Amino acid sequence: MKKMLFLLFVLSSSLNLHAQDNYRPLVEEGKTFNYIVDDVHYEFDKENNRMIRHDKYLPSSLVIKGDTVVDGIEYKKIMHESESVTYYNEDENPNFLYGIIREENKKVYIRYFVEGFFFYENKEFLIYDFGLNVGDCFVEDFNGLFTTTLKLESIEVKDGKRIFNFSTNNNQSPTRQWMEGAGGRYALGLEEIWDIPTCIECDWLYPQYQSCYIGDDCLCTFDENGNVVLGVEVIKTIDGKDDSIYDLQGRRLNAEPERGLYIKDGKKIAK
Question: Where along the chain do its domains lie?
């Protein structure tokens, strides 16, 4: 019995070491970070002297696509792709250069190239460090204005994928998860750097990171609290009235896909 337990321990340790050695970079050509954008519009009801809220849900994606060199440093480009979400671009084109990204020694750096956000400085931000050890701290900073301190509590391996579990100094969001190769709840910063408009009757856009794909391979999905979800088989619904079918890259579909995430009849569906 002791020999059997020892062999099981060795096998488990070997599998964990194998998963750790086979590091999956976050920055890969063709990797897609899919969002659902809650487009909120407030309309003033003069008759009843109150504001009425209208929501519609739109698919949007950030795609790592192509190479560039800036200030002598090699980066990958990040393209925003959608059928309708423009984020107030002057030319109202939903497909635009969002930023550039690079990875070095398991650290991920990003520079934003988008006007209309909190800043337009081309400053480089360190948004992930997958080389952390348990007990290490990381200051999460996507916009240069608001930071959250994360403490790595544990690293677990599920389905051969490494998941980082953090505690935070933010009472409203006391825990955080990253998945190696896919990032965490804020993905590439779209939720964190968006400048919410102050006008009453403007559209307010609230992006939420949903899933990470490379090609047809779904690396993981995220729930409404930003937790990593593997092997999704449930249907989650959201309110909405659009009866069209979309994939999470913003493309209109003629029929429901056999697998993956999509939107139909205002419902977000995961197969």
Answer: 26-229
